[in-house]
Amino acid sequence: MPMTARDVPILFGDGRLSLRVPSSADILTGPVIPVLADPADAVTTALRSPIGSPSLRAIAESRQPSSVVITMSDITRPVPNELLITAILAELNATGIPDSACTILIATGMHRASTRKEREIMLGKDLLRRCRVVDHESDQPETLVQISEEPPVGINRIYADADLKIVTGLIEPHFMAGYSGGRKGICPGLVDMRTVQRFHGHKTMGDPDAVEGKLLGNPCHEIAMQVVALTSCDFLVNAAITNNRELAGVFAGDLFAAHEQGCKQVSVWTSAKVEQPYDLVVQSAGGYPLDQSFYQTVKGMVTALPALHEGSTLLMCSACTEVGSPEYTELMLQRGSDYRGFLDHIKATEVTQKDQWQFQMQTRVLDRVGVTGLVMANDGLPLDVQQGLAVTPAVGSGDAPQRAQALIDAYVARAPDARIAIIPDGPYTMLRN
Fold this sequence. Notes:
The structure is a single chain. This protein is α/β, with parallel strands linked by helices. It has 2 domains: 5-28 and 274-432, 2-enoyl-CoA Hydratase, Chain A, domain 1, CATH 3.90.226; 39-269, LarA, N-terminal domain (Rossmann fold), CATH 3.40.50. It contains 15 helices and 20 strands. It has helices at 39-48, 56-63, 81-94, 116-130, 157-161, 193-199, 202-205, 219-230, 255-270, 294-303, 326-335, 339-347, 356-369, 383-386, 400-414; strands at residues 5-12, 15-22, 26-27, 68-72, 102-106, 132-135, 144-149, 152-156, 164-170, 173-174, 178-179, 235-241, 247-253, 271-273, 278-284, 308-317, 374-377, 392-393, 420-423, 430-432. Strands 3-19-15-16-17-18 form a 6-stranded parallel beta sheet, with helices on both faces.
């Protein structure tokens, strides 16, 4: 008797693709996240009734700052920036602070600068007209100021010099730092290259506590907190979103208290239980904007680890059209064919090459399933490039979704009793053993 099946839509590019899996397959996802009925009102309420802090308006009135910096994430994070920053400016304007006193600072970390189109997507044309918008540049000494000699820490000069510092961002599971948001808006978002390299050094990345969902004892979290202690954040505004990118929560106020409360809530919303590993795991890379690059696609690989055993196949579905930064691309094409040699190399030197940490995180998956067990369905990168990225390209006829379906069908035909899981929201779902 033919096996019954069901179609499961997963995040892919700017939409979802539907994949057919056996009805016995487990769909790993968190509970339904409630949507806020009035997002704009929710943000304003959070700014006026914050967590562990006076309201933003009270802080602004007492400070009467001549310069304000509002940080935001770059295009790799689906933050409702326009919603958050519009409400922030309204509170500042109400105290007499003009838009001309406010700089929107994009906390790029070591990512590339934002494009004009990306700024319009993130902020809308109105905010671009109202405020100066600047990208952080971690490798430009003239844009940085030293705030510590031991350990050496440099931070964005605009941020350091501002009279009022407001940090915005998104709280979601993060594959190495526990959760995004909070302190990550400063470190690595606004620090210099040396600090980012220390934050992402091979010892830090090799620590088993550098995982999603864990803050206590996580070296990434601890390094970032040490950096935050050297500077200041006057007010935090972090969002949480649903799987459809709708606003689910706003956590504003004290950086530590608001972020902690947000992380607890996001943990409840995004956790899925894994009773035992699976033979085939079908994983989304998170859809747009996360799956624009292979660099970000690695997050989905790593967050699938709790569902994998040594003989598993992990099928990554990603619409990425670029590998990543020039340095990361060169590294992968040089070292991707020999990941164990790469690990030996980074252990033998104290120099942290830009973006090497992402390949190091990928090797966690390679140590579990090998290159043959890490399969990627993608149309955005040439086949020869994919073959240099320590993955096995899903080949055959048709486009990436069709090839992904063919792989699933062939696997089921070959192993009808296999344990199969599909993770529709990719790295936005936190797997718990």
